[in-house]
Amino acid sequence: MGDKLKEFLNKSKELQNDKQAAELQHKKGKLTARERLKHLLDADSFVELDAFAELQSKDLEHKKRAGDGVVTGYGAISKKPVYVYAQDFSFMGGSMGEMHNHKIVHVMELALKTGCPCIGLLDSGGARIQEGISALDTGGRIFQFNTLMSGIVPQISVILGPCAGIAVYSPALTDFIFMVNNTSYMFITGPDVIKTVTGESIDFEGLGGAKSHNEKSGVAHFMADNEKECFDMVKALLSYLPQNNLENPPYYSSDSRVRETKKLEAIVPEDPKKTYDIRDVIAEVFDKKYFLEIQPLFAGNVVVGFARLDGNVTGIVANQPKVLAGCLDINSSDKISRFVRFCDCFNIPLINIVDVTGYLPGTEQEHDGIIRHGAKVLYAYSEATVPKISLVLRKAFGGAYIALVSKDMGFDKVIAWPTAEIAVMGAEQAVNIVNKDELSKNPKARADLISHYSEKYLNPYAAAKLGKIDIIIEPKNTRIALIKCLEMLLSKREKRPAKKHGNMPL
């Protein structure tokens, strides 16, 4: 056994971080693949798989190294099992070759079989050009498994360096993307190619940096200042999620159940034209210190994220009056629909906090497809079978009312404050249309007509008489009312007609 053991120990040394390569990573503000796994996973929990896999191309014999540029295996985060892979940029720029891709697929397959989250730490220049079509083909296998795993186990992508070409498609197929400011990049084609093809000059950061994808494109969901902070954010996200679609999200209670929400009256102005920050409402109503906002820098007219309500995880969708008066537009519609579908996949109840005048009007919105994007919201909520609760604070008008509140759309409980206004549109707009002829003859009648419309229609009681609102509450009782509604819905079961899948208006 002496020689065999010696051989094993020698080969194992190949797996250790090259000091020079590690220094290069550190100079860039980046950790090595193994250092990243050490920070992400519980201490001493990592078990490496396929450590001695090597590239098979005869043309690259001189390049061979155990592991083929990616470290794969399983471990634990907060004592819960996860499967992980971490690309090693020090080996051929983390490029994705045949065996590299096979290793990734292997952990994905195991994650699917065992019902465990799968986390990818990406740092790759894309397909390994020297391996040709085999690199592309096996990359397609990764994408297939991303799709097979979708809705069964949570998939998380952490971008920790450049990700180009085929390296960006897998993250786009996962549930959440994390990026690190100034070190993470995602793009299909780099600045040099763009310059050659279009003549456009742009740097890496402007093209596909963390800020670009968190603020402009909406491709990413979280941005951290450094890698260690990023891993803490991943751990925070996992604390709200079940292991798979057959489990419920983890319960943890740390706040008073009967706490009154007296500050709400001061936070939300009664005047519907005055603005406020919806995050203050969320902080007052839900369990203290338990709100994780998703995509906080993108589509600011809506706030989405995970919260706890008396210990139960909930998905929050809330209009933000501070931005575009909380109107729904193309970007916010995409943001809502994707979040709602994730929550439905993983048994997370949905609570809407509604203060919305409708969909954003404008030529640009119409030409860019607001009809199609807005329909995604309708589709996502109609499709969802988890508990769905809507709380109307002030305005709920038009198509946005249907999307976010309507019981005929499938919302289980609708709660309203006395300040709630539920109608096709606001009083001024309605009078302009309905009383157009009358106003042309008598413009002075406008004020009386607006007042009459408001008294008749812009109150929660008109909707309550028709059974469209279940409960009207004082703002101070908001928390306990939501808790009681959620409790009665946690056992909800809803079957839908059997089909292969629907055709969402993408």
Model description:
- Helix content is 39%, strand content 18%.
- Helix 6 (169-173) links the parallel strand 5 (155-164) and strand 6 (176-180).
- The protein is built from 21 helices and 16 strands.
- Strands 1, 2, 3, 4, 5, 6, 7 and 8 form an eight-stranded mixed beta sheet that branches. Strands 9, 10, 11, 12, 13, 14, 15 and 16 form an eight-stranded mixed beta sheet that branches.
- The N and C termini lie far apart (61 Å).
- It is of the alpha/beta class and 506 residues long.
Tag the structure with descriptive keywords.
16 strands; eight-stranded mixed β-sheet; single chain; 506 residues; 2-enoyl-CoA Hydratase, Chain A, domain 1; elongated; alpha/beta; 39% helix; 18% strand; 3 domains
Estimate the mean pLDDT confidence. Answer: 91
The level-1 CATH class of the largest domain: Alpha Beta
The count of β-strands is 16
Per DSSP, what share of the residues sits in E-state strands of 2 or more residues?
15-25%
At the fold tier of CATH, the topology name of the largest domain is: 2-enoyl-CoA Hydratase, Chain A, domain 1
Low-confidence stretches: none
Termini separation:
61 Å
CATH superfamily of the largest domain: 2-enoyl-CoA Hydratase, Chain A, domain 1
**CATH architecture verdict of the largest domain:** Alpha-Beta Complex
Radius of gyration computed on alpha carbons: 26 Å
Please summarize the sheet with the most strands: 8 strands, mixed
